[in-house]
Amino acid sequence: MENEILEKIQEQDKKIDAIYKSVEKTRKYLKWTFYLTLIFFILPLIAIMVILPSLMNSIANMYNIQ
Asked: Using CA atoms, how far apart are residues 56 and 45, in angstroms rounded to an integer?
């Protein structure tokens, strides 16, 4: 009886280790997805918000629109 319990505990340890590895891979994937979202979506939006007013002003001055 005691042997069976020890075997089940060892099996559970192996499964828990496998789950931990899978969770860590998922966490790293989500972290990199977040970073890439920042780089390719949020930062360009901020850049557009900064650059667009001066660009519009330059275009307006080019056509003498006031």
From this structure: 16
Scored b (16 or more CB within 10 A) or e, 47-62 reads: eeeeeeeeeeeeeeee
Rounded Cα distance, 41 and 37, in Å: 5
Cβ–Cβ < 8 Å for 46, 40: no
Place of tokens 């557009």: 48
- For the entire predicted model, the pTM comes to 0.65
* CA distances to 4, 6, 20, 43 from 9, in Å: 9, 5, 16, 49
Q: CA angle, corner 41, sides to 37 and 47, nearest 5? A: 135
Q: What is the pLDDT of residues 6-27, one digit of tens each?
A: 999 999 999 999 999 999 999 9
